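The records we work with from here on pair a chain with its fold. Taken together, the tokens spell out the fold as the letters spell out the chain. To see the layout at work, look at the sequence and tokens printed below.
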Amino acid sequence: MSVRKITLICLAGLALNLISSTAAKFFNLPIYLDTIGTIYIAALGGYVPGIAVGFFTNLIKAAFTPSEMYYSSVSVLIAIFTTYVARKGFFQNFVNVLLFIPALAVFTGICSLIIESFVRLPNFSNSAGEFGMYFLTNIVLFELLDKGVSVLVAFALMQFTSQEIKNSFHLLGLKQAPLSDDMKRIISKQSYLSSSLRTKMLLILILCSLFVSLSIATISYMLFKTAAIDDKIKSVDGLIAVAINDIKADRIDDYLKLGYAAPDYRAVEQKLYAIKNSSLAMRYLYVYRIEADGCHVVFDLNSSDIVGDEPGQIVPLEKGMQKYRTDLIAGRPVPPIVTNDEYGYLLTLYKPMYDYNGKCQCYVAIDYSMQHMSEYLHDFVVKMIALFIGCFVFIFAIGFSFIENNIILPVNTMAYCAKNFSYDDSVARTHNVKLIHGLKIRTGDEIENLYQALLRTTKNILRYVENLQVAKTEVAGMKLRVHAMNNLARNDAMTGVKNKTAYNEDIAKLNEKIYNSTANFCIVMVDVNFLKRINDTYGHEHGNDYLINACRLVCAVFGEEHVYRIGGDEFVVILEGDKVSLCKYFATQFKSEMDRKFNNESLQPWEKISAAIGVATYEAGVDKTADEVFKRADAQMYANKLAMKANRRD
């Protein structure tokens, strides 16, 4: 029988699962009937066909009911258990089948109960009797009835299945002629020097299966957690924006000095309470002016467990925010943080509030409870574990079958024949030749050729070992020299940042990431103003100082490792990964710091920095190349330059 016909029979088992399950739902039966095909194919064809039918049954059902995918592990375990007992002869007579039904019911019932107890978290803590009643109802009644019908139908189908089909399934995956029982027994008892090839390859297979399954589960968990946290950050950021609109930046000094005596202090506080009470998850809302001596309380609302501090009081900065202390004192934006301490699992967001001069007057902060999200994550992890078990067993079964039939069995049979080959007795020699030819191994020649090639290659490798050691030393020195030359070629001589060559190389890498759909970056274009005026008025030496000071400011805000000088007075910043979300905050801080320096009368003209800036973020599906993002940043910079010229008074 061809592989195509065997595949059709497996698809028929899959269809049987889906049809019987749909019928049970349609007639509102108290059973699932979604494992008949799995039991039949497992008893007929073994581990791989049975596991495949069970796994894909839940995969297809999950398209309509997502929770079904979490029970794929149970279907896979049913296929394994059924295959094991079928090979022990339990499907050869009706009595053994009747004994198999309660064993399968208890086995699958316990597995399902474990998954349900973690996914749905039923409360069995009231009494042992309640748990016993739940166990009795779901296993003794529900599972016994469901598995009884399923096993009996599968047994009936086995009676109508021809011996040709059964034999074809037994030979499924074999790459050589069937072995005699004696040869199977001898090969299975062969001794090895330390460990068998089967053990080593199965260990690699297990590690690979675990790696793939764990990677999928971990990535899914991280994406889910990141998306959930980002959603909370957006919500909290919106609430802070509302709070900032209710606070007058020019009244912060009065609030600190007068507190409740300030004319509109209580009115603003009531608005803040309204914002706090709008969300049950908002634990704390407070407004601080952060200076070197600590946090000066502007507003600190009472919560259910803590009474807020009085206005004007100085309190220490929270432990979680200590790493941003310098930025907070300087009035720069800081990213949100998530902490889990004595105050609970909280998302903390500090947002600066600037006056009309661009000076940070205070920070509006919210501590948002993440406990509800923690429960969501718990449920997600439990479901991923259930799914992980099913995926792991499915991948392992396919890999094990491939290793056994394509590598281990051919190698062991060839080794057996070679070991027992007789050179003295012509009759035995003829028998051994017939035995080797009778194996009909389709991969034997390739394995033999690979071994012979390995022997020839080993001889060649020995001759090159000494030369390799000498070459290794020379290559190490060459790498150091190439690295030094590469740094000189990629760095700007005057400012020390990366130059146009480095920029072009990194842009090419970004284009490759765009092509591979892994790009996540933004580009900031900075064009320094008044360079010609500085050169003409104070000389080119101070003009160079002016460019260097401008570069230092760009590096201080965005980080030197991200900065490129691509022209005389043009700088570009490329941010990737997590820093992309902070790009606009950095741009705002750059403008604020630039304005502060430009308006500082104590600085020399070449120390007062003026520059136009433009920011553009890569948009997947819109931007085909990184140059398109650069052009948007350049256009925004040019618009900023025109606006600065329009507002210039000198």
User: Anything to note?
Assistant: The first strand starts at residue 282 and ends at 291. The mean pLDDT is 80. The chain has three domains: 3-172, 177-442, 500-647.
